[in-house]
Amino acid sequence: MSKSAELARLIQDRAGTEPPEYGLILGSGLGHLSEAVQGVAIPYSDLPGFPHAGVSGHVPQLVVGQLEGRRVAVFGGRSHYYESGRADIMRLPLEVLRDLGCGQLILTNAAGSLRAENPPGSLMLLSDHIAFAGTNPLIGETTEARFVPMTDAHDRQIRAGLQGAAQAEGVDLPEGVYCWFSGPSFETPAEIRAARVLGADAVGMSTVPEVILSRFLGLRCAAVSVITNMGAGLSDESISHDHTKAMAPLGAALLEKVLRRFLRG
Ligand code: HPA
To answer: Where does a purine D-ribonucleoside bind (predicted)?
Structure first.
């Protein structure tokens, strides 16, 4: 049995075999939503091979259970490329999600905005992305499946559902392009200007590898950014991880409303 199938079995033994309808991966400062799920929490440390989400602001546990009447599997934290140099660090968790029978994934992250009309505390739904970090989680994959089409990587149907939920809640959810920088250093003002020229609306250090892996594994996915700051050089505020964590709850409250409404259907 594959490692992911073994872990899926272990999770099913504890949390039941009903397939989750949605997987959710929670970004910096958003991990607490995993605590709202009524179900079984499994610390990543009980799941051999799962990355230790070593960044503060993440809650390293998988919770499988009910949220707004839907069966979900919520990852309270993720690992980032910059923690290990491995762009495929989230491959095993996503394989496990697939092996649990889950076909849809919603990713969340904290991001810097390049648009004045999308300020800190607001949300952005990813319409597309730019893998500017210059690597790919499928490097080294030997099967033909590695040539993943990325034309419609951000699922239109899930996006429409999220838009509908946002509208119903009176929450603005503009769409935009997310540009993946490797981190962990923040961008320079020149890099932010370059990202704007390239067509980006927001920048961040995560999510893109997981979108690529999701498409590779046949999971449909969409991603929402919580804007915690303006990109470097675009405002006077300081940029830091502490600032990210301090600002994330503002947008996180809106995101939680949208996600709950989305799940309620
Ligand atoms: N840049 C990259 N990642 C981020 C930012 C940023 O400005 N804010 C939150 N995550």
So the answer is: 187, 229
Kindly give the distance from the C-alpha atom of residue 108 to the centroid of ligand 1, in angstroms, as a whole number: 13
CA nearest ligand 1 atom 2, residue: 204
Q: Give me the half-sphere count of Cα atoms (radius 13 Å) on the Cβ side of residue 197.
A: 6
- Span from the CA of 257 to the centroid of ligand 1 (angstroms): 23
- Calculated CA dihedral for residues 1, 217, 98, 227, nearest 10 degrees: 140
Q: Is 239 in the pocket of ligand 1 (CB under 6 A)?
A: yes
Please write the tens of the pLDDT for every residue from 139-196.
999 999 999 999 999 999 999 999 999 999 999 999 999 999 999 999 999 999 999 9
58 catalytically annotated:
yes
Which of 230, 239, 241 is the pocket-test mutation for ligand 1 (most atoms within 8 Å of CB)? 239
Please tell me whether 110 is known to bind a ligand.
yes
Cβ–ligand 1 contact at 191 (below 6 Å): no
Strands (E), the chain: 22-25, 38-43, 61-67, 70-75, 104-113, 123-130, 175-180, 202-204, 220-230
Q: What phi, psi does 239 have (nearest 5°)?
A: -115, 125
* Residue ranges of the chain whose pLDDT lies below 70: 53-57
Please give the domain boundaries of the chain with CATH numbers for all domains. 3-264 (3.40.50.1580)
pTM of the model: 0.96
